Amino acid sequence: MTGAWTTVLTVVFAATGLYGVWRLGTRRWQGIETVVDLSHVLMSPAMLVMLWWPMAATGQWVQIAVFAGLAGVFFYHLSGSETVPERAGAMAHAWMNLGMVWMLAAMPRLMSGDAWATMLSWSAVGLLVITAGWWLVHAARTPGHRTVCGCHGLSCAGMATMLALTTPSLVG
After folding, report:
1. Which pTM was predicted?
2. What is the rounded distance in angstroms from the CA atom of residue 53 to the CA atom of residue 6?
3. Distance from C-alpha of 82 to C-alpha of 138, rounded to nearest angstrom
4. Nearest Cα to 13, choosing from 54, 55, 42?
5. 3-class SS at 73?
6. Cβ-count burial of 79 within 10 angstroms (0-12 exposed, 13-18 middle, 19+ buried)?
7. Average pLDDT of 76-98?
8. By three-state DSSP, how is residue 21 classified?
9. 119-165, pLDDT tens digit by residue?
């Protein structure tokens, strides 16, 4: 990954993480919204560690368990969501957390060039791009939530970009 991409992604993940910290620090417990903020606060430093120390196994299995657990919380919330935006938001956050699980688990296989890991990673990139697009469209259509939806979209786009930059090409 080039120095320019490292700088851009550092800014993206630092900004989204700090925004999550700010939201956690300025609000009382608000159910799933608090879990969303906590998810971003945990994702951002995890992404920064992957970015700056790609082969570091810093608590890898603990991180996988945490992000899988958060995905489970969002899937559970999905079942109780009443509106399409609530369901889509829960699904998007579940997917982002599963994307973290995949990135943590697959990175060693991607570095070795495993074909199935490469195919799955490009599928994950596609889903993250679609999810980022959904958040950005939702931000444009929801005046009261533009900043938070923009943050989610930026985080997703950063994840998609980083995974794309670290995944081998499908075309040899």
Report:
1. 0.89
2. 11
3. 17
4. 42
5. helix
6. exposed
7. 91
8. helix
9. 999 999 999 999 999 999 999 998 888 999 999 999 999 999 999 99
Instruction: Give the number of other Cβ atoms within 10 Å of residue 24's Cβ.
Output: 14
Q: At what angle do helices 32-52 and 146-166 cross, to 10 degrees?
A: 30
Tokens 């399409």 appear where? 84
Q: Which of 153, 159, 151 is nearest to 23 (CA)?
A: 151
103: its two tokens: 């990135």
- 153 residue type, one letter: G
Name residue, tokens 């596609």: 126
Q: What angle do CA 133, 47, 104 make, to 5 degrees?
A: 100
Residue 21 has pLDDT above 70, yes or no: yes
